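User: I'm writing a tutorial on reading structure tokens. Could you give me a worked example: one chain, its sequence, then its tokens, then a sentence or two explaining what the tokens reveal?
Assistant: Sure. Here is the example chain.
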Amino acid sequence: MGILPLKVDWPARAIICERCPLRVIQGRISYCGRPLLDQIRRSSSIDGCGCPTIDKAKDPHEHCPLDRLNQPAKRVDGVCSCKWCGEQ
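And here are its predicted structure tokens:
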């Protein structure tokens, strides 16, 4: 319906997700790691967050759990090192 704001570059973010080593496909849906309800306890930088990657990429408030070297992303002084923010 277009009620929620979408990240303008969400297709580029989704492409990054599809190339990620954390990506899992289950039931024809791509996830950041195993789906959340399949693995409740997790470390997002090791297991992913469990969100569907397309929905995650569309959400302007989301960030990738990894940096460009596939290490845990960090936020220092308001600057994020995640794959998505580092690509901008």
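What the tokens reveal: Helices lie at 10-18, 44-47, 53-58, 83-86. Residues 10-18 form the longest helix (9 residues).
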